[in-house]
Amino acid sequence: MLKFYNSLSHLPEDYKSIEEGKTGLYTCGPTVYNFAHIGNFRCYMFEDLLKRTLLYFGYKVKHVMNLTDVDDKTIKGSQNAGIPLDDFTKKYKQAFFDDIKTLRIIPADVYPEATRHIPEMIEIIKALFDKGIAYQAEDKSVYFSIAKWPKYGQLVHIDHSQMRSGVRVKMDEYAKESVADFALWKAYDENDGDVAWDSPWGKGRPGWHLECSAMSSKYLGKTFDIHCGGIDNMFPHHADEIAQSEAANGCKFVNYWLHCAHLMVEGQKMSKSLGNFFTLRDILDKGYTGREIRWVLIGAHYRQSLNFSMKALDDARTALQRIDTTLQRLKEAAAKPDKGIDEAKAALDKAEKQFANGLADDLNISEALAAVFDLLRELNKLMDNDALGGKAAQLALDTFAKMDTVLAVFTPDSGDSIPQEIIDLANERQAARKAKNFARADEIRGILDAKGWIVEDTPNGPRPKRK
Ligand code: AMP
Ligand code: ZN
Questions:
Q1: C-alpha dihedral over 397, 402, 408, 410, to 10 degrees?
Q2: How close is the Cα of 282 to the center of ligand 2, in Å?
Q3: pTM
Q4: pLDDT at position 427, please?
Q5: What is the CATH architecture of 3-260?
Q6: By C-alpha distance, which of 167, 189, 191 is closest to 179?
Q7: Could you say which of 3.40.50.2300, 3.40.50.720, 1.10.730.10, 1.10.760.10 is the CATH number of the domain covering 269-414?
Q8: DSSP, res 170
Q9: Using one digit for the tens of pLDDT, what is the confidence trace for 201-250?
Q10: Atom of ligand 1 nearest to the CA of 36
């Protein structure tokens, strides 16, 4: 049984999907006005771990992630670039898709774009008008009246006596202390340039919160299973989504809300506004791979803040190289005669259980990774004693492959696998050593060194390794 901490109840809860064996998952996506930074990717990575865990446990997952392609930031960006909004956002949508591929994040089933769902948003506003919850103010914008919705603010503690009902916030982002009537439809003003849609309330554009209410329900139904985002999205974004959806639809919006803690840099949230951020591309340019970044981002429990450092990436490289070495040994052992099947089966069974139990317990990644490391140690011990081979080694490889459907870190990036040229040189060096042609062996070592490789002696013979 899967268990998740539900931000709605503030408690860990057994997971029960609406339809048996299926899950509807909505995750708030990027605002496509710039390259996403790795803080954003921490959030998308946690969602990927969640989705892969659901798949591991046999659920069919329908995953929807919105692309915010109209808001203050995208409009301003397109104006600064002097190009139409759609052309401006197109570049960053593509960059986002490229980045998630690098990070081995499984793409969502649907990526609805806000600009393509204006009619659905207008329908929600109409329903809120019918119920007397939406109103048009003097500035022609349409607002949600929090006074008309006493259930406002379930996700976060709101001091209802401090609520400024009747006071309006037009900005999409505001502090909890200034909770007030929020914008559903923003009346056109000249800052919006040529970005505007017609509506029953005049020309304008939707508020940010409304897009997630409209697009999640369109693709997943009015009530669905899981909604995720970073903790900074809990207020006001998710609080406003719940209010709009439940008020318009007259039913519960989402059963489980999961939020991830922030990626930090020296004690502060990594964010564009603080300027302390790295895009994925910044880190790839420093020579790290998508797999190494993935390892760092999944390594801490999603509800704990994670401090980012280059040292963490170096540690990831070391850890992954160790894993690669053992997996390579297992491949070689699988080609040998059968040996150690009982010992292997016992170790694999124990590891698989620990791995599954860890993930089922609110995605306890430390427990799942401990299972991986214990298993690697156990198998290395057996191989050191030449007590594992054939079918037993193949079973171990199958177990790692199954675990990797969740972790997605056990296969090297094409950039960090060993090129054939290097393998050939290492073999030639070995042959030269056997033939006692040490001059040639040393010469080849020099060539490998110049290419950035060293040759390590292992129980299964010499193996090239990046310096
Ligand atoms: P934004 O583009 O700012 O709306 O952010 C997109 C997603 O990334 C949201 O779910 C945010 O909560 C999340 N996010 C932003 N900064 C961080 C961070 N430093 N750590 C983790 N998640 C973040
Ligand atoms: Zn959202």
A1: -10
A2: 26
A3: 0.89
A4: 85
A5: 3-Layer(aba) Sandwich (3.40)
A6: 167
A7: 1.10.730.10
A8: -
A9: 999 999 999 999 999 999 999 999 999 999 999 999 999 999 999 999 99
A10: 2
